[in-house]
Amino acid sequence: MRIVLGVGGGIAAYKAASLLRLFTEAGHDVTVIPTEAAGKFVGVATWEALSGHPVSNSVFDEVPQVRHVRLGHEADLVVVAPATADLLAKAATGQADDLLTTTLLMARGPVLFAPAMHTEMWQHAATQANVETLRSRGATVLEPATGRLTGPDSGPGRLPEPEAIRDAALALASAAGVAGTVQDHTLLAAPSGSTPLAGRTITISAGGTREALDPVRFLGNRSSGKQGAALAAAALEAGARVRFLAAHMDVEPPAGVELVSVESALELRDAALAALPDSDVVIMAAAVADFRPAEVSGTKIKKRDDQEAPVVRLVRNPDILHELVDTRNASGGEQLLVGFAAETGDEEGGVMEHAQAKLERKGCDLLVVNHVGVGRVFGQDDNSVVILSLRGAEPQSASGSKADVAAAVIDRIGAELSRVVPPA
Known about the structure:
By secondary structure, this protein is α/β, with parallel strands linked by helices. The chain has two domains: 2-187, Flavin prenyltransferase-like (Rossmann fold); 201-417, CoaB-like (Rossmann fold), CATH 3.40.50. Helix content is 33%, strand content 23%. The longest helix is centred in the last third of the chain and has 16 residues, at 402-417.
């Protein structure tokens, strides 16, 4: 596969050298185009030694070959890492003042941007507008990682790790039907793009909601978000566009998703309903609190010796999945809706009895059932589920790592989608 690796002028440019090596060691032909500013961080000799090609960012080098046209036309994949705020702005506004920006304008294959910048720059309205513009034109813009930045502070804006960028880039190329895509370090033929999930938009919720009691305390649950993250990774691998509604999580969302962060059940409800119209599939894997405090104190609730412990009155949270089903049905939509149920048995019935009743009550198409308990499912690396269908199909079991379970769920969703008209 022919890859153009654009390198922006930020301190994270040193990580791009590792990304370049990951690509070349897998057998890909990589042309590196650093910006002039990137040359201040990593020298041309490094890029040439690792890529095996001459490196330049001038449109006046090798003029007879018309490189500023040829590179974009011939590239199977363009990856920009790090993508600085300046580079995102230039790409969004169609500027073409060097070899990298002209190549981006000429690119006809998939394009992936891996942003890296300070938190305030990433969160600035101008940068967010540029990101939305690029995404609306078909480019993939990863969410930056959260962590230590240049200097003493931390926050969102850190370049994702090279392995995560590689995986997202190869999944993007695979979804686009690019031959020679590397997966699991083996040269494979890429899917034709006609798989059930290729080109689909899948919205996935994950993690556990937190319901505020006061500025310090909240009601929460034990969900780690691991299963939801695994589902997102499996959907990306299948060629889908993934919108990821992330409540509190112990793990980072996979690179390549469109990240929407939420805190409470009400915030998740709003995000899920907003995502429904342009989704082909909605998977509600988040652990949503059934109740929230009726009153939220504006100050920390103090413990005093002369007072009894406060009584916390709870109110019900909305049933988000049921509301999604009702909204879909009222609008005549054809979205496939998938719920998750964390169940325990009690004196009124076993796990599967409760799960079947929940499936019928909520009306979703598929329900993925977990038997939960202390030391089971939440926070663990393994899982065991049963997939129930509203259509009455035989229950399907899946177990193993959460990645294995995610693959089984995504495969089942693909089988369900194959029964309906594929996307245009």
